[in-house]
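User: Can you help me understand a structure? I only have the sequence.
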Amino acid sequence: MKADPYLLDLRRFIKDPLINNNTTKADIFAAKFFPKTRIADLNNIKIEEITEQRALNISPIIITEKINKLIRSLLNGKALGPDGILNKVFKIAALVIAKDLAKVTSCCFINGTILKSLKEFIMVVLRKEGKKDYFLLGSYKLIALENMLAKVLEKYIVNIILEVVEKYRLLPWN
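Assistant: Let's start by predicting it. Here is the structure, written out as tokens:
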């Protein structure tokens, strides 16, 4: 594969030679940003100490006011996702569609389905500012550009999880 003039040559470590083959560069990026998962070591968890098992009863009905609040909290001027909708435009449209949006997403939660378009995203590799050597892989970061509605639903679910974490004090505050 011919080297791309827009993708700098890379090296894994400072003493390694520069690599100009795009396939090899892609493999380097993939290894850095998508490492192989490992099995967690659970040996220090004592099952007999777990005395109560809790199940979270989370309502699948999405409240329109909460959706409106989340949409208003989106920052303007952010990069577009695959749907091409600006946050600023989505905020204006939400004034009209928020009720229907809440209904549709509630149906998705009730049925346990996620629209295919909500699973689509664009991954972008960006240079980190102020690095000495842009030939090194550590000089880059990965950014996910998500569908607008996916961002809102993700924030909604995160907020529910945070409420539960705080309510049951599931994380230490040290």
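Now, to help you interpret it: The longest strand covers residues 121-127. The helical segments are 22-33, 64-73, 87-111, 148-167. Let me know which part you'd like to focus on.
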